[in-house]
Amino acid sequence: MKNKRLIDEFNIEVDDDKLPFTNDYDVFRDKDLLDELRKKIIENIIDNKIANKDLSENFINDEIDHVLNGRDLTNLERSHIYNMIDNEINGYGPLNELLNDPNISEIMVNGPNEVYVEIDGKLLKDDTVSFINDEHILRIIQKMVQPLGKTIDTVNPMVDSRLADGSRINAIIPPLSVNGPILTIRKFKKNLSSVDDLLRNGTLTRDMAVFLECCVKAKMNIIVCGGTGSGKTTILNILSGFIGDNERVITIEDAAELRLHQNHVIPLETRDTNYDAKGEITMRDLVRNSLRMRPDRIIVGEVRGAEAFDMLQAMNTGHEGSLTTLHANGAIDALNRLETMVLMGNMEIPVLAIRDYIKNAIDIVVNVERLSDGRRKITSINEITGIDENREITIKEIFSFNQTGLTLSNEVIGEFKLHNYKPMVYEKIKNKGYDELDSIFKNINSNENNKKNKNNNKKVNYYKNKK
User: Fold this and answer.
1) Across-strand partners of 281?
2) pLDDT tens digits, the chain, 467 residues: what are they?
């Protein structure tokens, strides 16, 4: 029997005509006049040297009255001007509402009338928001990056920065951007701050969460890998939450996004060159410096280049429990990329020595993916098992997510799987006093299982195709 909707059951007639929505600047169609009024009002405020904290509603209204004196505007147009000026002065202009919307995870500004947002992993064009012109976009970008001492102009036409809440900003302007200023904001996810949030979202299972928690507490070195926008930093932030309050934690990032709540956290951030092309502080500089700061843990936001070697050195010289992320399509690709990044340091180190470094330094590789329906899942948790007779790194999968199909609404169907394998880190973790993994791996015979899976380890083939 076909299920009926409630409106069908009671023969309710529905008017399909949707309520029309009003574009941001359709309220006030004369954009040139709107920009002129905005400039005059803000110039008056600057000339009067009024601090933001003194910008009351009455003061802004008085300034608007002064500038609009003699102009015949409707109440709707006047209200729109007030909201725009208030957002321009106390916020980030047309982006304010998007930044305050908890359902939006990313904001992409491609032009004055071309604003896209990501909601639940889906990319949508937002026709309710627009800018006056390219200069308006550039002003908003400058307002976002200036508090961190950064600038964007024709000399420095690219910038990476962050907002006060940890949201990541990237902006690029002409001459590098052909069509005008481009702004991308990846918002800090306030609703994903604990492992319980990941469990509710179906990002991982309880067994996977317990395993990762024990790995962090037992000071296993962990890499989180995945593609762009897959949620690597979110996973890293949540894993970092398992670190104890009695440890000194140093975080190193290009733009500080991690939000750790421990008592003893030292955040470090890279610095770009100044106008004289001097003063750059790279990720590698900070990793090296952090080793002299008596760290219990080193967390590198993302490894991109030659700093990979210094990070591996730290992991191999007593700084256990380090965490980092890197861009890769899977665990095997992550280790290949790590090997490549060490070679980028122009150090004459044999490839076999680098593989030994990686094998001794890294314990666990976590892969996270954004699926076709926009949801993020941890699709694989692996451990490095050693180096085989061909001198290639081998890894073994502990947990995985297997996609089996799609629903009619294109949502991914799949299941998480615990492999019939007792990881080598299990004994290390247990020896450090964490027995929570007994319930997960107690029915797996390690000797028989390891013998059975000896030839089934995945090999990391450097510069070879993976099948």
Assistant:
1) 271
2) 455 555 565 565 555 444 444 555 566 666 677 767 777 776 666 566 555 545 556 677 777 777 777 777 777 777 777 777 778 777 898 899 899 998 898 999 999 989 999 988 788 999 888 888 898 899 899 999 988 888 898 888 999 888 888 888 999 999 999 999 999 999 877 766 789 999 998 999 999 999 999 999 999 999 999 998 888 989 999 999 999 999 999 999 887 788 888 889 999 988 877 666 677 888 889 999 999 999 999 999 888 888 888 888 888 887 899 999 999 999 999 999 999 998 887 778 888 999 998 999 999 999 999 998 888 999 999 999 999 888 889 999 999 999 999 888 888 999 999 999 999 999 999 999 999 999 998 877 655 455 555 555 665 544 333 33
Superfamily of domain 195-460: P-loop containing nucleotide triphosphate hydrolases (3.40.50.300)
Q: Domain 95-188 class?
A: alpha beta
Distance CA 221, CA 361 (A): 7
CB under 8 Å to 162, separation ≥6 — which residues? 148, 168, 169, 255, 256, 257
Rounded distance between C-alpha atoms, residue 28 and residue 75, angstroms: 11
In the numeric block, which tokens belong to residue 161?
């920065």
- Could you give the CA distance from residue 144 to residue 151 in angstroms, rounded to a whole number? 9
Which whole-number Å values give the CA distances from 243 to 180, 214, 218, 251, in the listed order? 44, 10, 9, 13
Domain ranges of the chain: 23-90, 95-188, 195-460
Say if 95-188 and 195-460 have the same CATH topology: no
Q: Are 168 and 177 in contact (CB under 8 A)?
A: no
Q: How far is the first Cα of the chain from the last one, in angstroms, to the nearest whole number?
A: 46
Closest listed residue to residue 462, CA positions, set 413, 399, 390 = 390
Would the pTM of this model clear 0.70, i.e. be above it? yes
Amino acid at 460: V
**Two structure tokens written together for 115:** 């604003």
Cβ atoms 301, 340 nearer than 8 A: no
171 backbone dihedrals φ, ψ, rounded to 5°: -135, 145
